[in-house]
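hiii, so i know i said id send this last week but things got crazy w the move. better late than never?? heres the sequnce for the chain we talked about at the cafe, plus the structure i predicted for it. fair warning i was half asleep when i ran it
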Amino acid sequence: MIPIDIENKNLWLLFEFHGEKIYLTESMVSTWVVMLILIILAIVVRIKLNFFKDKPSGLQNIIEIAIESIDNLVKSTMGEKLEFLSGYFFSIFAFILFANYIGLVGLRPPTTDLAVTLPLALSTFILIHCLGIAMQKGGYFKDYLRPNPVFLPLNIIGEFAKPLSLSFRLFGNMFGGFIIVQLVYSMLPFFLRFILPDIVHVYFDIFAGALQAFVFTMLSMSFIKLKAIND
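okay and structure toks below
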């Protein structure tokens, strides 16, 4: 598998099929690594469940705090009717957080690729309208005619703008930070690359990574609630 550079993208040629070249991108590898980490963590937690005690400590404390935090956030933001979505939002938040943090070990964060952030936003888009139809029924379609039927085209455009804004916001912020970090590395002598970039990583990978995961999750909650529960 030979690394090649095509249109400034880090790609690896896997094989050719009927004259078509099949490539493996760095974002794909990073995504698989994140998925593997989360799967391993899920298996470990599932095994540890059998040994959980009434008085939590160590790993049990961390797990309970994380789950309770997401549960409380979903309940306070979306209400009790949509509290069942806490598992979905926990998964989304965990994936984006780990995807943003994978840059700390030298891999390219998957969220710096629009091919990753757009499917994440589309999953929220599907939930918005599936839950809207299921919970509002006829009121879902009437919502497009408010405040006046003349606004129907604008309301439809506004709905399609939601996944685009979600995906581009996450992609733009993470890709911008990724470029800045790479520029810092390219400008520094080799012996300084292990010291000075740490400050840049603290902001663009740790702080901004957690912030963007939280923003994506919160906006998804707000969009779903707005369509599913019309107060």
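btw The chain has one domain: 54-228. thought thatd interest u
miss u guys!!
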